[in-house]
Amino acid sequence: MDQIGLMRQLSLKTETKIVMVVLDGLGGLPDPITNKTELETANIPNLNALAAKSICGLSNPVLPGITPGSGPGHLALFGYDPLQYVIGRGVLEALGIDFDLRPGDVASRGNLCTLDTQGIITDRRAGRISTDKSRVIASQLNGLEIDGVQVIVEAVKDHRIVVVFRGEGLSDAVSDSDPQRVGLAPQPVTAINGSSNRMAQIANRFIAHASKVLTNHHPANGLLLRGFSRKPDFPSFKEVYNLDACAIAGYPMYRGLAKVVGMSVVKTGTTLTEEIQSLRDNFNSYDFFFFHVKGTDAAGEDGDFSRKVSVLENFDQFLPAIIELKPDVLIVTGDHSTPAILGGHGWQSVPVLVQGKYCRPDSVSVFSENACVGGGLGNIPACHLMPVAMANALKLEKFGA
């Protein structure tokens, strides 16, 4: 029996409430000048006070040394082993904007990017152009048909778009065109097995078409595709944990992740003020809340150390509003590390705190990477956090005689 099976067997329906705050890309690395991480640099008195009342530790989203994408990072936090439950980025983007994915559809996440005159990527995010500009570009790319396959293009958020291929004989077993690094040219989409040759050919023909359309769009004069995928069939959060779960997330991809596991996705804005209000408005209607904060990750990916510090300090000011709701268990962690000095996702373990009436507080009094090394949780797989939360909310039966 795996963890999902065990949780399905032991989970109880109770009135206790769990709030899981995910500060996307939370973990960091020391600034070379100050030798302090973003968390250690930030003025976060409320997080530190909460850590002193909590059991703390570090978590690994996948395995030590493995750099996770946002999909596996969040699935692990939801208690799904990311090595067993695999999902592509394209599906998450599509579901996040309520796109009606049909059986056989293959979805891909698109990044509008900037290419130089030699076709080399200089900015994978085209300066994070506005969603309004992406919407115009998406409309120009939408509606192409290639060998009987319809290509549907929709704007998602900022530079992100979703490209859905709809037709017969398609496969998601193809490589990405996005090398996920600047200084390289986009890569051709290639078949991973013999059955996906047609998909690769169609994707490359679409990319060639998009290149012509985007020639005069600056800074968004290129397109990168990754995460070709179909909609999966995962056991639902309700089925596994006996929880009525609610997702409060302003960015489409994370709303898509919540939908994949069957959470209700409530209407909210992208600011912390709006998200806190959504939490208040829905607190009596659900017993599990996934509360997502994007700014930490965006700053880390942009290599902006001081901005990531500011995002942490800003969240700290809103933390009392979450605590005032008196959830029975409150978790604060991240889906992965995004150190600003890396300018991207990292493999480093992620700080985590779990606070509740039945948690055994440890000696940690500061919420940081170094402090959490000595915490009572130790260094655990991220997918084990849900059983810890469930136990502390008195939502698990005893295992065995």
UniProtKB/TrEMBL annotation:
Pathway assignment: Carbohydrate degradation
UniProt function note: Catalyzes the interconversion of 2-phosphoglycerate and 3-phosphoglycerate.
GO BP annotations, alphabetical order: glycolytic process
GO molecular function, one term: metal ion binding
InterPro entries, per the entry: Alkaline_phosphatase_core_sf, Metalloenzyme, Pglycerate_mutase_ApgM, Pglycerate_mutase_ApgM_sf
Family membership noted in the UniProt record: Belongs to the BPG-independent phosphoglycerate mutase family. A-PGAM subfamily.
Pfam families per UniProt: Metalloenzyme, PhosphMutase
Annotated protein name in UniProt: 2,3-bisphosphoglycerate-independent phosphoglycerate mutase
Catalyzed reactions: (2R)-2-phosphoglycerate = (2R)-3-phosphoglycerate
Keyword Transferase tagged: no
Entry keyword set: Glycolysis
The keyword Nucleotidyltransferase appears for this protein: no
Organism: Dehalogenimonas etheniformans
Domain of life: Bacteria
CDD domains recorded: iPGM_like (cd16011)
Coiled-coil region(s): none
